[in-house]
Amino acid sequence: MFEVLVILFLVLAFVLAVWVFFAQGKKRKIGQRELKYIHSHWDRVIRIHQVNPKEAIIDADKLLDYTLKVRGYQGPLGEKLKKAGPLFSDRNGVWSAHKLRNRVAHELGDIKKSEVKSALKGFKRALNDLGANL
Question: Higher pLDDT residue, 65 or 19?
Answer without folding.
Answer: 65
